[in-house]
Amino acid sequence: MPTLVRIGHSPDSDDAFMFYGLASGSVQTPGIQYEHVLRDIQTLNEWAREGLLETTAISVHAYAYVADRYAILTHGASMGDGYGPMVVTTQPAAVADLRGKVVAIPGLMTSAFLALSIFLDEPMVEEGATGAEAAVRYRVMPFDAIMPAVIAGEVDAGLLIHEGQLTYGDAGLSLVVDLGAWWKERTGLPLPLGVNAIRRNLSADLAATISRDIKKSIVLGLEQRPDALGYALTFARDMPAETADRFVGMYVNHWTVDMGEAGKRSIRLFLEEARSRGLAPSVGEIDFVD
């Protein structure tokens, strides 16, 4: 009887593209039955704290809270190489203009929120909190509700992830900061956003097999791009094919096949900067599974 392995990932075009090989059956997996569990990244981050899935996509930020349960696979990562989450407003604004204003964010454990906090070099406070009137305030909402909330004036600014990074201009919004561009200029490294994590209590043989299968799926998608993109478009929330193709190319690429030493170094630096600022707990030595 095959071993059941649950893979958690978001119902987004880039993750769908990455797992096309496994979901379509093009990647043969003798002895293992993969079950794809599709949830938004905030839910997957929360589930990882309980160790619910054998392998799962998580935010790099979330890894600081689940390092006791999971190791990081060296493939399947989403890296913003000179681009990444963006803060946008309805009118041109400077970073200083965010003080005392409300920024919609896609989740407290998202890497986008951590990157913004590091960029601001001070903790953000929840909307409605007393004191710290000059601090940047946040309101948590679903990622796909953030751009409409900014346009409607329900919040002063929004922290965009996913395809909003490509479409905010078409919606008439103005860019305040691109956090991926900022991180690249500051460190020379890609901004680590998401990774695939694998549960520590799996046997070494099973973990190695899962790791190989996921890497095969990523490589197959890149080699069979038209078919993989066609599958990904079913998860693209009505995005035009050209936009979806560009978005997939941003986050499924050579960094996804293998993050390499540069990717590992960026993850270590990102989490160490978070620890040093009191924004996340220490993870100690990070375990990577090749």
Concise structural overview:
With 290 residues, this protein is α/β, with parallel strands linked by helices. The protein contains 13 helices and 13 strands. It has helices at residues 13-18, 20-23, 41-48, 60-66, 111-120, 143-151, 164-167, 179-187, 204-223, 225-233, 241-251, 254-257, 260-276, and strands at residues 3-9, 32-38, 55-59, 70-73, 78-80, 86-89, 102-105, 125-126, 137-140, 157-160, 174-178, 191-199, 288-289.
Description:
There is one protein chain. This protein has helices spanning 13-18, 20-23, 41-48, 60-66, 111-120, 143-151, 164-167, 179-187, 204-223, 225-233, 241-251, 254-257, 260-276; strands at 3-9, 32-38, 55-59, 70-73, 78-80, 86-89, 102-105, 125-126, 137-140, 157-160, 174-178, 191-199, 288-289. It is an alpha/beta fold. The strands form two sheets. Strands 1, 2, 3, 4, 5, 12 and 13 form a seven-stranded mixed beta sheet that branches. A six-stranded mixed beta sheet has the order 8-9-7-10-6-11, with helices on both faces. The longest helix is centred in the last third of the chain and has 20 residues, at 204-223. The chain is globular and about 60 Å long.
Task: Give the helix/strand layout.
Elements: E1 3-9, H1 13-18, H2 20-23, E2 32-38, H3 41-48, E3 55-59, H4 60-66, E4 70-73, E5 78-80, E6 86-89, E7 102-105, H5 111-120, E8 125-126, E9 137-140, H6 143-151, E10 157-160, H7 164-167, E11 174-178, H8 179-187, E12 191-199, H9 204-223, H10 225-233, H11 241-251, H12 254-257, H13 260-276, E13 288-289
Parallel strand pairs: 1-2, 1-3, 4-13, 7-9, 7-10, 8-9
Antiparallel strand pairs: 3-12, 4-12, 5-12, 6-10, 6-11
Helix pairs in contact: 9-10
